[in-house]
Design the sequence.
């Protein structure tokens, strides 16, 4: 059965025991509020829910603080990529001197999904109140066709 899965960028990943995972989990829980300084993944920056609705998949992605113009959706072959870019006001030299504290993260964030079972020509997108909603129609299974050939 087809499922929409995040694209695996690390194809040589092996499921081996890593004794440092427990330490990493501890660091993340302790320094979670400081994640921009210790690294964070796109999954933490924008979460995605995917549900089945009849012949469609509905993908809802939280993108709070982004504007519609900050988001791009690209389809390359069997992969759909959602990219969001947030610019910082404190990058501007004039406004930088006015900041007392700046904690909000900025930069480019993206996630890719395998859409091999989706009819990519019929995907629709809507952005409302910080939530990007994509409707992903399933490909119709090809029905075997029969025909009779005439012999010349």
Sequence:
């Amino acid at each position: 059965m087809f499922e929409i899965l995040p694209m695996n960028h690390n194809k040589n990943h092996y499921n081996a025991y890593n004794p440092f995972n427990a330490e990493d989990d501890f660091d993340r829980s302790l320094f979670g509020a400081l994640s921009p300084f210790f690294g964070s993944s796109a999954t933490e920056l924008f979460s995605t829910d995917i549900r089945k609705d009849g012949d469609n998949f509905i993908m809802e992605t939280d993108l709070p603080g982004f504007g519609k113009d900050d988001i791009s959706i690209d389809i390359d072959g069997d992969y759909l990529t959602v990219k969001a870019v947030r610019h910082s006001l404190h990058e501007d030299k004039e406004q930088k001197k006015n900041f007392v504290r700046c904690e909000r993260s900025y930069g480019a964030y993206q996630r890719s999904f395998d859409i091999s079972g989706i009819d990519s020509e019929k995907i629709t997108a809507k952005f409302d109140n910080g939530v990007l909603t994509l409707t992903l129609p399933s490909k119709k299974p090809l029905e075997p066709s029969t025909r009779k050939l005439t012999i010349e």
User: Anything to note?
Assistant: Helices lie at 21-31, 35-38, 42-45, 93-96.
